[in-house]
Amino acid sequence: MAKSLLDQLKDMTVVVADTGDINSIEKFKPRDTTTNPSLIATAAAMPAYAKLVDDALTWGVKEAKGQRDDVVVEHAMDRLSIEFGLKILDIVPGRVSTEVDARLSYDTEKTLAKARSLIAMYEAAGTKRDRILIKIASTWEGIRAAEVLEKEGIHCNLTLLFGMHQAVACAEAKVTLISPFVGRILDWYKKDTGRDSYPSHEDPGVVSVTRIYNYYKRHGHHTEVMGASFRNAGEITELAGCDLLTISPQLLGELAGATGELPRKLDPAKAKAMELAPIAMDEATFRRMHEEDRMAKDKLHEGIEGFSKAIVTLEKQVRERLAAMQR
Q: Which residues, other chains included, contact 59 with Cβ-Cβ below 8 Å and sequence gap of 6+?
């Protein structure tokens, strides 16, 4: 029987499920899983996960020790992320990414405090920190927080990454993993150019991740590259061989149902032989390159804003559930 494209992809790339839905994770059996506030908000609204929300609130009430409901909700939000993470880790053999509140993206110290708190909660539940990736937006401030956390043995996934300056800064900070957003880059270019589509090999998101991957391998950076935010299966097959790819349940299903030959597109040995000049990175260079890269500037701002709104939505769900429990 011919191997599916998904099975072939798993032979050369670590496949990660981009979802908070436990049932989808059980179905596709990825090695790792990544979540974000939007995914958790969607999952938390499902009746199947009502008990997780209730358990998180019960914990939040206990931790708040009689303080106002806002404090209860804040504790419950953190606990809900941990509860989903723990459920996921019961299924996957690898790691789960748990996101720091996007509203802290430009505050290094608050990002550090939240990340340490999340790791402490995982460890209190009996989970070792090497199975957790703390997910932080790729702002200059977020990257600096990640650099400190990595030195403390807290591994990080730098998300909302769109530009080469972000990728270089992350590598120099020795973060564990980056998540360049393929589909969101495509979205921006389609809107900016008025084009309806791009061939997969010319897809601007694919081109961006390929460039980052080759740069990392050429210069010996150990930071892993995990392509994310895919719009179609063609983007995924064009990045076959990438260190990791995080894929939605819908596209996982599409790849699982398709056959044919899947050639390796990204190869560390080939990248090592390329002539790619190193880029020296400091804060001034980062900020200059960020201002010059309209796409990265737009999408980072939009991404932080979107994740922040998703957190507000989730807080509203949790607050409503708390009110129902208090009746």
A: 75, 76, 79
- Kindly report the backbone phi and psi dihedral angles of residue 256, in degrees, each rounded to the nearest multiple of 5, phi listed first: -65, -25
Per-residue pLDDT tens over the stretch 130-157: 999 999 999 999 999 999 999 999 999 9
Residue 64 and residue 71 in contact, taking contact as beta carbons nearer than 8 Å: yes
| Strand extents, DSSP E, 205-250 | 224-227, 244-247
Please state, as a whole number, how many other Cβ atoms lie within 10 Å of the Cβ of residue 315. Answer: 17
- Which residues are CB-neighbours of 253 under 8 A, at least 6 positions away? 28
Q: Is 135 a catalytic residue?
A: yes
The two three-digit tokens of residue 119, written as one number:
């790791």
List of residues 6+ apart from 220 with CB closer than 8 A: none
Residues 6+ positions from 201 with CB-CB distance below 8 Å: 238
How does pLDDT run across 172-210, given as a tens digit for each residue? 999 999 999 999 999 999 999 999 999 999 999 999 999
Domain count, the chain: 1
List the catalytic residue out of 114, 135, 217, 299: 135
- CA end-to-end distance (rounded Å), the chain: 58
Task: Give the rounded percent of residues in the chain with a pLDDT score beyond 90.
Answer: 76
How far is residue 244's CA from residue 224's CA, in Å, rounded to a whole number? 7
The answer to whether residue 127 scores a pLDDT higher than 90 is yes
Question: Where in the sequence is the domain holding 253, given as residue range(s)?
Answer: 5-320
CB neighbours (10 Å) of residue 186? 24
Residue 279 in any domain: the answer is yes
Q: Which residues of 6-40 are buried (b: 16+ CB within 10 A; e: fewer)?
A: bebbbebbbbbbbbbbbebbeebebebbbbbbbbb
* CATH code: domain of residue 242: 3.20.20.70
Instruction: Provide φ and ψ at 99, rounded to 5°.
Output: -90, 140
* Residue 72 in tokens: 């209860």
